Amino acid sequence: MKKYLFIIILILFVASLQAKSKWLGEDKVLHFAGSTFLTYWNYGVSKDILGQNSKKSVYFTISFTLALGTIKEYSDKKLKKTDFSWHDLIYDSAGVIAGFVLINNLR
């Protein structure tokens, strides 16, 4: 089942790379992938390097990863003069969830 779910997600992401809308596109894939990577990385730093317990590592990871996404959107608004994108933050949140799925299955 996990194998098929991974294949379906991969196909959807490849298809969305070509799309240009508020919900699909290369930017959304990058937000998702970046948040997934940061979640996995931040959890490892918190748990393995800082020696936090699992519960504190989860709180740290969620807070830090989503804060980075929010700061990125705020800087886009101020520096690039583009709109603050709630769509991007939703993909960031989905990336955090995917990161924890990876943590639970790979660690």
Element order, helices and strands?
HHHH
User: Quick one: overall form?
Assistant: flat
Q: What is the subunit organization of this protein?
A: single chain
Main β-sheet, in a few words?
Answer: none
Average pLDDT, all residues: 84
Label this structure with key terms.
mainly alpha, about 80% helix, about 110 residues
What do you see in this structure?
By secondary structure, the chain is mainly α. The protein has one domain. 82% of the residues lie in helices and 0% in strands. The chain has 4 helices and no strands. The protein has helices at residues 2-17, 26-49, 54-80, 86-106. Helix 2 packs antiparallel against helix 3, helix 2 (26-49) crosses helix 4 and helix 3 runs antiparallel to helix 4 (86-106). The longest helix is centred in the middle third of the chain and has 27 residues, at 54-80. The protein is flat and about 40 Å long. The relative contact order is 0.16.
Task: Give a brief outline of the structure.
The chain has 107 residues and is mainly alpha-helical. 82% of the residues lie in helices and 0% in strands.
